[in-house]
Amino acid sequence: MKILVKDYKKNFVKAKVESQEDLWYLYSIIEKDDILKAKTFRKIKLGLENTEIVKKPVVLSIKVEKTEFASDLLRVSGVIVEGKEDIPAGSHHTITLEQGSEFSLEKKIFLKYQIEKLEESAKESHDKILICVHDREEAVFA
Questions:
Q1: At how many degrees (to 10) do helices 112-123 and 20-29 cross?
Q2: How many CB atoms lie within 10 A of CB 13?
Q3: What angle do CA 26, 31, 36 make, to 5 degrees?
Q4: Which residues, 6+ apart, have CB-to-CB distance to 112 below 8 Å?
Q5: How far apart are CA 82 and CA 45, in angstroms?
Q6: DSSP state of 54
Q7: What is the pTM of this model?
Q8: Rounded Cα gap, residues 114 and 46, in angstroms
Q9: Which residues pair with 140 in a beta bridge?
Q10: How many of the other CB atoms lie within 10 Å of CB of 6?
Q11: Cα-atom radius of gyration of the chain, to the nearest Å?
Q12: Which DSSP helix (H) or strand (E) runs through 27?
């Protein structure tokens, strides 16, 4: 994870997800009632009679209610607290975090272990390693 801005005294961090491991770290850090802000897609109805539904990219802030971890993404569901004017506050939305996603997270208070996990994920090296095991007739790469 790449930490872009951090201010633990104001209980705020802005970061970018760089790997699937980062999603696992976030799953253990993001809790109920945190505020998560990220770019997401929202279905918006256009027109009154012939309603056309369009997915638009928007930046929303949600008050977290639950998190779900899948192998390659983290789904964070909650109630919208801030967004565009045409998106009503108080409605539910799910933000999907995946590799390459930028987000900001506000907590009531960052606990020591949460700060340690964030810092640990930022220090984590993502070097690519190639292992070769061979004998006289065969080689296996991993």
A1: 170
A2: 22
A3: 70
A4: none
A5: 19
A6: E
A7: 0.77
A8: 42
A9: 133
A10: 16
A11: 19
A12: helix 20-29
The residue with tokens 């971890």 is: 69
Structure tokens at 20: 């699937």
Order of strands, edge to edge, in the sheet holding 2-7?
Answer: 2-7, 12-16, 102-106, 35-46, 52-69, 74-82, 92-97
Strands 12-16 and 102-106: antiparallel
Q: Which of 57, 72, 62, 58 is nearest to 27 (CA)?
A: 72
Which residues, 6+ apart, have CB-to-CB distance to 127 below 8 Å? Answer: none
**If you search the block for the tokens 């256009």, which residue do you land on?**
46
Determine contact, residues 101/90, Cβ cutoff 8 Å. no
Q: Which two tokens stand for residue 129?
A: 């390693």
Give whole-number Cα distances, 133 to 49, 128, 137, in Å.
66, 17, 11
Are 28 and 118 in contact by the 8 Å Cβ rule? The answer is no
One pLDDT digit (tens) per residue for the chain, 142 residues? 888 999 989 999 999 998 888 888 899 999 999 999 999 988 877 766 667 788 888 898 999 999 998 878 999 999 999 887 777 788 899 999 999 999 999 999 989 998 888 888 888 665 678 899 988 889 998 8
